[in-house]
Prior knowledge:
Layout: H1 5-8, H2 11-26, H3 36-49, H4 60-72, H5 77-91, H6 99-102, H7 104-116, H8 118-124, H9 131-145, H10 149-160, H11 166-183, H12 193-211, H13 230-233, H14 240-250, H15 252-268, H16 271-288, H17 295-316, H18 324-349, H19 355-382, H20 385-411, E1 428-429, H21 432-447, E2 454-458, H22 470-475, E3 480-484, E4 495-499, H23 505-510, E5 511-522, H24 529-538, E6 543-553
Parallel strand pairs: 2-3, 2-4
Antiparallel strand pairs: 1-5, 4-6, 5-6
Helix pairs in contact: 2-5, 2-7, 3-4, 4-5, 5-8, 5-9, 7-17, 8-20, 9-10, 10-12, 11-16, 15-16, 15-17, 16-17, 18-19, 18-20, 19-20
Amino acid sequence: MTVSSSSRRFIPWFALAFALALLLRLLRLGELPLSDAEANWALQALGLLRSQPVTLGTQPLYVHLTASLFFIFQASNAAARLVSALAGSGLVLAPLLFADKLGQKAALFLTFFLALDPGLLALSREAGSPILTMTLTALVWGLWRNNRVEWAGICVGWMLLSGPALWPGLLALAVSYGLTRGIVPADDFRLEASSLRRAAFYAIGAYLAFGSFFLLSPGGLGAIFRFSLDDFWTPGALPPLVMLTTPFIYQPLAIIFGLIAAVRGALKRDALTLFLTFWFFAALILSLAPPARPIGGLAWALIPLWTLAALELQHLLIPAQAGRNETLAMTVLTLLLLTFAALALTAVALGKMDPPSAQMYTLVALAAVLMLAVGAALVAQGWNTAVAWQGTLWGGLGFLAVYSLSIALFAANLKPHATVEFWRPGAQVTQADALQRQMNDLSLRHTGTSQSLKVILVGMNSSTTSNAPAALRWLLRAWDVTVAADFVPNSTSNLFITSEGFSAPQLESAYRGADFRWYSYPGWEQASAADWMTWLVEHSLPSGEENIILWARTDLFSNESNP
């Protein structure tokens, strides 16, 4: 791909978008504890590093790359998520490969949209998420159409090792391409025999090299054949209606302008717009159809949706057509009125006022929106239509941009406190750090070093360490851990960790216990209308809890230990 002289002026902006994406994906990356799903992938990588027998799952590329990062740095939450963070940052640059088709401005808009999108940002901060698959798929397509056949082949090999999220993504692309070809001819995708052979050679080489971890872990070569129906038929944590509303809450800017572009393109029978529209709806249906409803599957729909929005804004965002000062004044007025309405509705959503006051604030918000509509109409009638239209558009875009950035910080859990998000719908580990601190404190008191006591897991519905909760095993990765079916006291049993319902009289008499909130289950199904209103503002929701108990032998405490 060559960069024309007219395109070079956009390069600093693309670099800025990439830097912004990288910053948001790396900031406080290891702060949240790993969930069970994340820890499962991290433990596979750690097992490889320790030369332990490991049964690789469906994402050997992630596991092998993460094992390398653990070797270079150390096993940590941040290192476990680093592959996803870098992959998500790489996706931001993919529009560069399609700039000739989209247009330079649309490609630049799309780059910033992908950098700041809440869903893609959340997946980029999750270990083992589909973001690696999505990035590699975009690179394969972009490199191929730019005649970078060898690199496209290498990315195909990596893509096949990136996990089962590939197949619904490819199916959505194939369906949308077929539907588009059925309406209008398309010539963007070329398949030449010589190029295919060359790409296949590189793809096979990349698959063999990285699938076997350069012969260090040949178990990864069978990843393409590993497929579990449980991944699709096990009911998901997020209700269908909640999942369907996700783009409207997290991506309103994309929904508004993307659907406008879809309608405009359908009327013009534009091949690119039709393809993107079919792709969006195909990906959306495929994410909602299986009972599992993986939230990562919804991310496939975000790429065409944001691309449609970028194409529409490329046409709409033009220099002021009438008086610049008047247009800016209309922009400021729009921003102020929309912000005022949002603040009034926020006060209502928090539910801290009586019904008459809530009704009054709601009417005030509606009055602000009505005032904006009347003001725009008066400006159009008495002054200039272009001023009214462009000022309202710019102000509305500014308001939606601020909202999108705010909710992106929520989705990435970059707020001061942990939040409940659609993009992390399952059980979340909460007090892992508190448990680790307490255990280290006891170890320092007794031995003078941290992580030096023997830990026994009891009552975890498991008889082997490999079947204990993955997040707990990850937390205790540096400890001497064994699993027991029941409590058996002995002189080396310093610490026990049990489930909340486990009971053993001998344990309670010889050990001191402290409970820790381990899992938090968002109450998606049980939330009331008032709960959802509060969630829209604070992203907090009533949650169920599951505790574990740390038991420490009484002589570990300073006031009872012998010098």
